[in-house]
Backbone:
């Protein structure tokens, strides 16, 4: 057999094994997708059954409503997370920081800001990577503005944020959020270049920028389905293990707001979007350290209780985009002037976003 | 064989260091594992995203926590080359 089609014997058996694996993989995937869909379509009924029939809580009670909401939202989000993280990771398995850098290195500024922000949205990286990443980008000759676009958008938009927003607040809100995050990054890049922010980097970074860096080849081979699956499964596993508790905490706070705070409480007590509430919310949000996972369910709670959409969005984006630990970390490569410009910019841009959205909706 | 683990010290980086130590033990090879936390060293090695692992100066992976089996296979390949 192997002589006829001209392949070495081991290669032949490897191929058959690989094909068998692929067939099994597809079959398992189809079954799991069907199960997932069934589970997803009966969460609402199941949550109501548990709360009102199994636990016997009264249908009109606050506690019953809160609990039903909590169960429904938690299960829905966890299901969405599992499925979508797998799918998204599968698709972007071949994308990494090195590739993005090489791709951005030759781009003109105008398009560069847009691409920088876009890659920021789709490339995941651990927040403690932001400093090496920044260095790697600037030493490869990428203008600081494009790097900034990447850096600003990256924490604001990621697949978890999109899943949560979509599941909790609907697709319209998700689109607005993503658009605002991308815009903040692009305008930020333009702003940083226009004030020539590069001169305010720490001296050692400026020195390093004079010597061109040797690009490392991080293995550019084509990925097989199996390699993609391994990557996607690993990502799903590690992200899920990291975020499930935050989903529960976040939805818990959201549920508490939902059932315990009277409707329109914010509108009645904090004013219905007075102009100063937006910059004030951003000032509170910037030093807070929060990731997207924790903040989105809280956002839902705030919105349903009458906090205006712009104020809510401004608060949440500023909580996610910057934090005291991040500022401390960036201090290694940025001088005080650059950090002031960075934080000042975030404050202004989120305030403007908030005002704009409050005026539009 | 010199294996370097790059990372400023977040939980993912620590996990990677653990895995690399386990992998060295499992492979039965002798290797020194170094933890690199200094920014300039990372920059010099061309590390963009952490955690990253390099073996004998060439980058094996970056931006993710590798599995133990993967690290063992890298060690084996590096040992064959040497």
Residues:
């Amino acid at each position: 057999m192997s002589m006829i089609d001209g392949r070495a014997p081991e290669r032949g058996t490897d191929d058959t094994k690989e094909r068998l694996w692929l067939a099994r993989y597809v079959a398992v995937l189809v079954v799991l997708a069907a199960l997932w869909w069934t589970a997803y379509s009966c969460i609402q009924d199941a949550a109501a059954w548990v709360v009102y029939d199994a636990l016997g809580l009264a249908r009109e009670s606050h506690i019953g409503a809160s609990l039903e909401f909590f169960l429904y939202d938690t299960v829905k989000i966890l299901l969405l997370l599992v499925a979508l993280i797998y799918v998204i990771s599968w698709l972007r398995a071949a994308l990494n920081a090195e590739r993005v850098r090489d791709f951005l290195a030759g781009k003109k500024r105008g398009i560069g800001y847009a691409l920088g922000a876009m890659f920021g949205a789709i490339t995941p990286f651990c927040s403690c990577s932001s400093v090496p990443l920044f260095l790697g980008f600037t030493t490869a000759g990428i203008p600081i503005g494009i790097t900034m676009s990447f850096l600003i958008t990256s924490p604001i938009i990621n697949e978890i944020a999109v899943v949560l927003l979509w599941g909790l607040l609907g697709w319209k809100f998700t689109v607005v959020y993503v658009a605002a995050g991308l815009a903040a990054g692009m305008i930020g890049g333009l702003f940083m270049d226009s004030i020539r922010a590069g001169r305010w980097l720490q001296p050692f970074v400026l020195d390093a920028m004079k010597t061109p860096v040797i690009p490392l080849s991080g293995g550019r081979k084509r990925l097989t389905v199996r390699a993609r699956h391994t990557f996607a499964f690993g990502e799903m596993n590690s992200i899920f293990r990291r975020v499930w508790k935050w989903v529960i905490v976040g939805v818990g706070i959201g549920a508490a707001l939902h059932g315990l705070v009277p409707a329109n409480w914010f509108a009645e007590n904090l004013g219905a979007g007075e102009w100063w509430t937006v910059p004030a919310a951003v000032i509170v949000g910037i030093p807070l350290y929060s990731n997207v996972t924790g903040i989105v369910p809280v956002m839902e709670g705030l919105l349903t209780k009458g906090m205006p959409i712009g104020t809510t969005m401004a608060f949440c984006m500023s909580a996610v985009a910057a934090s005291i630990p991040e500022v401390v970390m960036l201090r290694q490569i940025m001088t005080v002037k650059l950090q002031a410009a960075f934080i000042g910019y975030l404050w202004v841009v989120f305030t403007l976003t908030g005002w704009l959205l409050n005026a539009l909706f | 064989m010199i294996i370097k683990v790059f990372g400023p010290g977040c939980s993912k980086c620590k996990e990677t260091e653990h895995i690399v130590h386990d992998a060295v033990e499992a492979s039965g090879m002798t290797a020194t594992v170094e933890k690199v936390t200094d920014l300039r060293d990372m920059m010099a090695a061309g590390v963009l995203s952490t955690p990253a692992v390099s073996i004998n100066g060439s980058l094996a992976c970056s931006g993710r926590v590798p599995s133990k089996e993967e690290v063992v296979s890298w060690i084996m390949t590096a040992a064959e080359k040497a």
Q: What stands out?
A: Confidence is low (pLDDT under 50) at residues 1-8 of chain A. The two ends of chain A are 69 Å apart (CA to CA).
